[in-house]
Amino acid sequence: MRVMLTGGTGFVGGAVAQALVEAGRDVRALVREPARARALASLGVALVPGSLADPNEVAAAASGCTHAVHAAAATSPGASRRVAGWVNVAGTENALLGARHAGVRRFVHLSCADVTLHGGPRRGWNEDRVPDTPPLGPLLETKLRAEESVIGAGTAAFEPLALRPGSEWGSGDTSRLPRLCREALSGGGLRLFGDGRNLVALVHVENLAHAVLRALAAEGAAGTVLHVLDAESALAGEHYGELSAALGLPAPRRGRLGARALDAYPRS
User: What is the DSSP string of 113-174?
Assistant: First the structure.
C-alpha cells in the first residue's frame, strides 16, 4: 500500500503519517514548503512540493499511490468564509480530482464531528440526519460541503469515505492548544456552554490515526461517514477544567447558552 497524504505538517496529519510509517506503509506527502516538513522527512516520508490549489500537483503527489488520506483543512475559528471555502471545499475537490486521476482507489477524508451542529433542536438527534438549517459558522458549513463532495465522488474504481473525528487532543498539538491557552489567558479562563455539564466529543490523536489505518483497508466502508470518538465521553467542565489545571491556566468560566457561544467553543 502506497499512501498519498495531505496536511501532513499539521497536528493530525503528522500523527497519521507516523502511524502509517510504523505500520510499514509507503507514504508520499503533498507539502507546500518542503523545508518546513523536516519532521515528515525524518520519518522517511517522501515529500512532494505542491498545493491543493492545483489538482495536477495533487495528481503528481498521488502518482503510483493506491490510497489517499486528505487531512488538510482550514480549522482556525478566525478563518473567513472565503478562506474556509477555498481550503475546505475547493481544496477537497482538487484533492479528489487529483487522486482519482492518479488511479487512487481508496480516499479517506477527515471531516469533523461538529458538521451537524445547527440552530435547530437536537433532542433525540440522530447523526445520520441532515440538518434542516445550515451548520453554525463558515468552518462547519464548508466542512459539511466538502464531506458531501467526497461522498458523492464514488465510482466503481474510486472508493471515498469520510471520518468525523471529535475534537482532537494529545501531545504535539501546535494549533488548537495554543488557541485555547490564548483564550484562557486573555479572557480569564475558557468559556463553557452554561455550567459545563454538556458532553463533548473528543478523540485522542493516536486513536484517530488508528481509525485512519482501519478506514484505508476496511471492506464495505466506501461511501460511508463514520464518527471517530474516544471510548468514553467527557463533561466539558471536567475536561477543560483538568486541562486548564494541568497547564496552569485560570479555571474555565460559565458561559452563555446559544449560537453566539460557539465563538469561544473549541471546534475541530
Answer: GGGG-BSS--TT--TTSPPSS-BSSHHHHHHHHHHHHHHTT--SS-EEEEEEE-EEESTT--
What are the structural domains, with CATH classification, of the chain? 2-173+202-231 (3.40.50.720)
Query: The whole model's pTM is what?
Result: 0.88
Instruction: Please name every residue paired with 3 in a beta bridge, in sequence order, or none if there are none.
Output: 27, 67
Measured distance CA(86)–CA(90) in Å, rounded: 5
pLDDT for 265 = 39
Are the CB atoms for 94 and 56 separated by under 8 Å?
Answer: no
- Tally of CB atoms within 10 A around 172: 12
90, 143 contact by CB (below 8 A): no
**Residue 64 CB contacts under 8 Å (≥ 6 apart), including other chains:** 2, 28, 102
Neighbours of 251 (CB within 10 A): 13
